[in-house]
Specification:
mainly alpha, about 60% helix, rod-shaped, three-stranded antiparallel sheet
């Protein structure tokens, strides 16, 4: 004769129903009598079977480590600093904007000066947006801002020159 116990989720309050497979009988046992119905050895064996897991292979551990690194890298907040962030775009903005303004003031190839000014303006905008998102360090904000200003000045001088030529003609 074999007894089978069915235990609900709340053991302290719910009675336990046992059924005898041989006799077709059913009885209700109080929570205090559960230890009499289910032998302690059976509980220990079931608990051991739940706790024992197969040791993962070397390959599975390496894959798990790689995935954990990728997840931590993707979920880590991006901070400005010396952790591989580039100051290239803000610096290029300053170089192109300043070079365009210098070439325009000195009158050296105004067509190329305008292209440098536009490049400085665009790179300044991109550099400032990268700084705002945390992809570039905040220390490069001055370079991006100056490149933006110099590029904007070149475009402003270009527009003023076009207006002067349109209003007064070539004299």
């Amino acid at each position: 004769m074999e007894d089978v116990a069915v235990v609900s989720s709340d053991v302290a309050t719910a009675p336990v129903a046992t059924a005898s497979a041989a006799e077709g009988m059913e009885s209700v046992v109080s929570p205090a009598d559960v230890s009499a119905v289910i032998p302690a050895e059976a509980i220990r064996e079931a608990y051991k079977a739940e706790k024992t897991h197969a040791k993962p292979s070397w390959k599975e551990r390496m894959i798990t480590r790689k995935l954990e690194k990728k997840i931590s890298k993707a979920s880590a907040p991006k901070e400005a600093g010396a952790n591989g962030q580039s100051k290239t775009i803000p610096r290029l903005s300053l170089i192109f904007g300043g070079l365009g303004l210098l070439m325009l003031i000195l009158g050296i190839v105004p067509g190329i000066a305008i292209l440098f000014g536009i490049a400085g303006l665009v790179l300044g905008i991109v550099g400032l947006s990268q700084i705002r998102r945390g992809e570039s360090p905040r220390s490069s904000k001055a370079a991006a801002l100056l490149g933006l200003i110099f590029g904007g000045a070149v475009i402003l001088f270009l527009l003023l020159a076009i207006y002067a030529i349109a209003a007064f003609g070539f004299a």
